[in-house]
Amino acid sequence: MRRPLIIDRSRDADFMQLALELARQGAALGEVPVGAVLVRDGEVLGQGFNCPISQSDPSAHAEMVAIRDAARAVGNYRLPGTTLYVTLEPCSMCAGLIVHSRIARVVYGANEPKAGVAHSQGRFFDQMFLNHRPALEGGVMAEQCGQVLSEFFKGRRSGA
Length: 160
What we know:
By secondary structure, this protein is an alpha/beta fold. The chain is 38% helix and 18% strand. Helix 1 (12-28) runs parallel beside helix 5 (142-158).
């Protein structure tokens, strides 16, 4: 039986702030600073940050790490009734994972003009062939999320 999706935006900023803290942890390791938190009923089930370089794993995007963490924690590959908070618009790989894991809602911060598939480079989640479509909300704390990325790449360009 499907859980009804009740959208409570009152804690979106709190969970996005946690995702930003995770993004900063990734940046400290030299990873592109993207963080993600998966939440159900106000409880954090999984969290992660980008770590494809340190893990030698091209699939180790923040969303992938957080979803795997949550799936292990609950003992199920399906995560209905959950909200994924991520600091950057998901790519196509992560979008597919979001659908397959049945995440109910995706809240992201900054747009990803080169590879984002929620809105920037297409609307993957609107495709008719999908058997699950999460609710989407972009632009939550977009300025702060974008700033973390801008500072990271500015530091890389300056050699810092």
